[in-house]
Amino acid sequence: MATHPDGFRLEGPLAAAHSPGPCTVLYEGPVRGLCPFAPRNSNTMAAAALAAPSLGFDGVIGVLVADTSLTDMHVVDVELSGPRGPTGRSFAVHTRRENPAEPGAVTGSATVTAFWQSLLACCQLPSRPGIHLC
Q: Which residue range or ranges hold the Aspartate dehydrogenase domain (predicted)?
């Protein structure tokens, strides 16, 4: 996850982290170590850890990047890969989300609308109407 340094609300040792250059990795490691110090900036990574129970918070790697060029958006890159098969190759997916955001905002401006539309879509599933938490 990358955003302008003003968009972070960091705690503990990350709060003292400084961006010496225009693009600085503030954290790279297990999501479990990131969530307590960036609770408002690690929700997508925490959701990935929950969605991958075989990996969990210790197996999913989170990267938090301060990038001074990102004055109007938050960027979330998600990379997934499976185990290597008999040919030595593995399944892989890379997706990038660019969420418009006001300068210094922790939440992108499209987040609330996207969340609300997702809830509405869940409530209209013909096979299982309603919201189901697993």
A: 24-112
Neighbours of 61 (CB within 10 A): 15
18, two tokens: 């400084």
What structural domains and CATH numbers belong to the chain?
A: 2-123 (3.30.360)
Instruction: Tell me the pTM.
Output: 0.77
- 88-113 pLDDT tens trace: 999 999 999 998 888 777 777 666 77
Rounded distance, CA 61 to CA 42, Å?
11
